[in-house]
Input
Amino acid sequence: MSAGPAASPPWETAPPELTRGAGPRPVDPFLAACRRRPTPYTPVWLMRQAGRFLPEYRAIRSRLGFLELCKDADAAAEVTLLPVERLGVDAAILFADILLVVEPMGVGLEFARGEGPVIHRPVRSAADVARLREPDPADAVPFVFETVRRVRAALDGRVPLIGFAGAPFTVASYLVEGGASRDYLWTKRLMYGDPEGWHRLLALLARTIGRYLAGQVAAGAQAVQLFDSWVGCLAPDDYRQYVLPHSRAALAALPPDVPVIHFGTGTAGLLEDFRQAGGDVMGLDWRVDLGAAWARLGPDVAVQGNLDPAALLAPPAEIRRRVAAILAQAAGRPGHIFNLGHGVLPDTPVDHVRALVDAVHELSARRASP
Ligand code: CP3
Output
């Protein structure tokens, strides 16, 4: 323990928004890193940490369908907590899905086995957009907010809880394509061919996503991540014109003191614009060098990333080497949250994920500066 305030390391005391609970507690490394404050080690969590690579998750899924699981607040809370207990990560991410909020719009959402999401009535014209219902998340997806409350109670301050939503573009891509896509041609057809219909669709999604995120925060989420997973398929100018204002509008619905992580993949060509849409932390994939991307973004933003998820299929010694390389790019600057560049792959060995978390903690451990 330190002798007094003069010798106290900068992370031992913190204002309330950086601590895990009420009162004078140690600063939370994840929340502090979101604010670019010094931390005793680099915090780490993983996208899709609560998913199929965990045998406990697969056991729960053998009894419950994916949507059933999302709608069962007890089971969803249990799955949210699995990686905290099993992997030692520094944050929990709510177990839910970016498409839950589109089901009440009346498009017919199904998660077909082995196929991913299917939208039975895709939205491909202005007339289709006009038929969409605009849900109030409080009535339409109350189970999500209930899961947040249960997780917060069960975590009892151990680590913070991250809420999340899909960004308007990525959610729209599923609505328009009717499922996953490689080239987003239906999406671009609507965007380029009927800009007015496109903007009406994205404005509706931005309002819904904004209320959905604000509802998660009101229920107890301590940070949020906006997933714009597929935005990298766009030309920068199209991003600025057709997408950026809507992502910004969704984020404007949040209280200013809640850290926002803005994540996308394939964003190397539009990093600066992506940042303009908002967020305290920019999520990077592995196709960019973390140090070079951070230099482009500037020092007044935090970064998250960016190990290739496939690296977790390599032996632990190689994982450790790659962790060291990413930490070297961050160079100990405050404001780095370690993560993968995209979600954990289903075939990833659990031991390798543990090796990753341990390597991040060990290799980034910092001694207090005077
Ligand atoms: O990160 C977490 O562990 C929290 C839970 C979470 C899920 N989906 C659970 C899930 C999060 C944060 C998401 C986000 C999500 N969902 C995104 C953005 C992140 C990304 O991967 O780009 C997207 C695009 C979706 C839409 C979605 N949901 C797809 C394409 C699929 C099927 C393919 C796949 O990757 O699994 C889902 C299903 C889904 N969402 C599963 C899980 C655990 C698998 C469902 C199962 O058990 O079969």
